[in-house]
Amino acid sequence: MDYRNIYIDESGNTGPNYLDKEEQYFILAGWLDINNEMQKAENVESLADLLGKKEVKSSDLAKTVTGKKKMLRVIEFMKEKKCVPIIAIANKKYCIPMRIIEVLLDPVYNDEIFPEFDEPKYYELKKQYADRLFKYLSHNELEKFAKIYRGKDISNDERENKMKSFIDEIYNSLSNKDIELARLIKGAKKKIKANLEAEVGNKSEILARQSPNIWLLYMFFLLVENNYSKYGYKFKVIHDEQSKYSSHIQDMFLFVNEHKYLFYGNLNHIDEIKFSNSKNTLMIQAADILAGSINMILKRKNINWKNDISFINILNTVIPYIKDSCNEDSNTVYVENLEVFLNIMKFYEQRI
């Protein structure tokens, strides 16, 4: 069996804080060494020369013209070696209405929802509902759900009562804006106790749902599985060390493989996940630069970007990966509110 390596790093990880104003996006980016070019000593040496002797994180590189030039050179080098960029992006704030839809419009625990609602073909309908919640719910309402759902430092009974109150609050809030969605959410109240109790049952599943870096990694793996399993390779994943989440990521991987019937796609070709210190792994440093360049673009903090050639060069190289998420065979998954996505494209004068 032939093996190929995927090197992954992330940007914007603030744990369970989905409403962080400074880091609004969580990004996983990786390089798939599809032709094993980075197994060659001369290519490793060339990458080492580009990166320099001391590791510098993309968040620091992005602050200077020299740093941005280095970021661009690394990305262009990886492309020259036919390494494939695999990217998963999530707007953290948008993840909250999506989770509301998943939890409160679960057909098992909501009699207002038709049984087939959980099938993949209804994903677009779920996304439409999430877009409507994103538009209509206030910051405080989203924050309240996130805290209740996380359930930190509260008993199961208290969590249940708080969620019932939240459902009533949202029903009243939505009634004058979107009565259809208000009625559907109201239907979750009757069985909310059983709904929440079912989620408490498996630690790995809970972590996979609550931690953006874990469930987004699953979506990242699905991209690889769906787009590259046809080549017959097995894939070894080398992820930057995560002192807090490494065991949870392994738990998620095992949970998916042991409960395949619960998930939209199987991970038959992801052979193993390893963790490596980025200081000792040049390809992870290259993945950090890819993730950081995407985050830099999505933040839209460079108001005078048109006068920053070093930024424009990265933008022209990387934004096609972001726009590519709209295509069926894309190597990018982008969990985003449509209006926000269009505003980002408008900011950078991009056609869709």
UniProtKB/TrEMBL annotation:
This protein's source sits in the domain of life called Bacteria
Name of this protein = Protein of uncharacterized function (DUF3800)
